């Protein structure tokens, strides 16, 4: 029997507001434990929440980008459960009336564009963190993250494969980062994902028993976790077993999933409208203001890059996958207005070094002005492309600019025809056998002579000029040969 | 010569301004009254003579400098559920027995800015859950008119203190009658303002959508002075309403001729106590003499008020009180096996019977599968009650009603019969359900010499009408001038 999987994702994105969702504490990451707290986010008796308007604006921005209907009135609700990282023992969230519903995003999958429905987008507050002591039976609570605004984006069960899910997740990630409302850092937990998955025989329309998967903190793990879970479902059903509705944890070490709690053990969150917060009104003025503030998103940017810069669609896709990369590209093109060459360099050398170093593009040692400078040098013929790569590596390692490196290391390209001609004549004299073979028709030996010339100039000779002179000189020898023979 | 503690705030303010007495003298007079009566009455959880005297000294400086405000130098008692920075705020509960808030409630801030003198925290039913001040973990407060009787609750300490000169004025909070009932039982004037008129920031929540802070005083003039101070918008409370008000004391001499009072038949047909009936009839006669007209009206959904209240209030309470878990502050069980066990023991030891009862009620009513039948239905009844009142106010300026079915009952009389206790609030609860302002003022005495209050209710933010009506009544009567013989 052939199965198909049905996948829906719940994505939590931390909003990049300066202050928390319901108090004025900073959301800065990495401060000393419990230093970014106040009576409100600590849930002290008597404290009351007041909504951070910026968090609402960000949510509306995301709702517009995901083609959602925005509810004029939505409500905050309390999600009640006991856990030491939750100081009030309830989380302010939204339940019956979220900010936005009924949206969609178009996702670029290997089989073409696919429309994934967005069920809802709602606002909530993050919980704190527990730090467990390995040696003693003690746990510490850090409430710096408590009250940081989150949005939860719930998809329809529209995905049919782990690849679909990963593609959808990448596309949400791209939108959030493009909007500048989330830093998208999965490792630090500012972008998190839970998945609901079930399988059914291909062609059926009913929904099978679903399991919820948690703890997948990278795109790769989402795909791996889902893949494993789908196989587990298939094996269970094919083996005549029954699936139970449960929540399972992905274990990155083993690549498998383990049961966390069954449906019977599921929390009863006892949601009810939060009486401390009035119904939330999103007026048309706010929606319009956010619509106007909506930046160009990845797919639109990609189209524009192909159209305006004439670069291949694949390259445009890679360059627009991240907003920062796209901005880097555009800045470099402004300095060095040859988009194809910029694109080629970014797709190869730049990306290789960036990935290798693991730093973010903002901290890359080669910034648009430096890359533009290097590309100009190459275009002017001051250095060859080959030397360019050497210089780039040096720039990356030392942070120096291309001019400085070329000057210090004497890498200026030799373009002086007489100098190169003299050098070539010596090389030809030193290699009579190769010359003869070349003249007898083995013309690919030209590469050998180029190599010898470059070696002699330590790579500094202008390869185009070398090529021209070599051909000239060899032809002259042919004529001489003919003359001698006759 | 009468003692300073017997005088009204407005008389004392006059004496202070003229330099005839100092705030320190007034404060010492009240402190000595507290000392002599506390063994019998027990109005306070904590008295702060050091704080009071130092505040009085500062008030005297302001008076000397000529920067005194209306209530500068007047001693006030604060109900034990309003945060007082660095001082114990216990809510009458073991679970908060040692809790010192790191911030002031907004009303406390206003009191301090006015340079009033804070005497201490007034006793109350645990978490304001009760109608007799018997559920306080610190033991009951006794009614100064008959120390075998309760002062009413939950703000029994605030009412008793004002009644017997242990404070000049005080603040209480009212969720279902917790200001109006003790005002009635203790023969003082107390108001629950419109929901949203006074900031709840720093008021330890019982039922957030019903809680409201309000003033106690010996007459309407003093009450108006304190109302002037606390009636204002606060950006720290999302439910606080931005609405101005006139100086309530400027309305005290207004004629009420031509105003109309409504008499809800549902209230009066429930009334069986002859003393209460007699006093209300007498009140009607006095109002009529001043040109007030009366209309009978019907508020049919009021019959469901108590039932709906005992769903909504416990639901909110079950969530509001979830934060007392022993993790962050307050009581923590000494011995426990694990985290869950710590929660359970802490809460089992920390909460009293009534708090536990309401937490259980609310937790049950919010549980999955019961929400629609209980919370949602109660919320609908609440809407109906609000609509009934709205309709009623089309034909009258205010509603006259009893405060309680009978005068103060004996300590221990109802404590083991929660339903009987709950019924004490039958006339006050609908006012909270609709968010309306209600005032309770002395209307006479029972044949045993116990005070009996009457309640006046107006539409939202029409406190001025209540002030004018009560002021007119107090011009013609002397019930409010009578003091207990203690």
Compact summary:
The complex is a heterodimer of chains A (486) and B (486). Chain A is of the alpha+beta class and 486 residues long.
What does this protein structure show overall?
The complex is a heterodimer of chains A (486) and B (486). Chain A is built from 15 helices and 16 strands. Chain A has 486 residues and is of the alpha+beta class. Chain A has three domains: 3-289, no CATH class; 296-408, no CATH class; 417-485, Arc Repressor Mutant, subunit A. Chain B has one domain (4-258, 396-481): Amidase signature (AS) domain (Amidase signature (AS) enzymes), CATH 3.90.1300. Chain B has an eleven-stranded mixed β-sheet, sandwiched between helices. The radius of gyration of chain B is 21 Å and the shape is globular. The mean pLDDT of chain B is 96. The chains are: A alpha+beta (486), B alpha/beta (486). The interface between A and B is large, with 28 and 43 residues.
